[in-house]
Amino acid sequence: MKILIVEDEPKTIAYLQRGLTEQGYAVDTAANGEDGLHLALTGEYDAIVMDVMMPGLDGVLVLQSLRISKDTPVIFLTARDKVDDRLRGLGAGADDYLVKPFSFLELVARIQAITRRGRTRETTLIQVADLHIDLVSRRAIRGARRLNLTAREFSLLAALARRRSQIVSKTAIAELVWDINFDTNTNVVEVAIKRLRSKLEEPGEIRLLHTVRGMGYVLELREEGGL
Question: What range(s) does the OmpR/PhoB-type domain occupy (predicted)?
Answer without folding.
Answer: 123-221
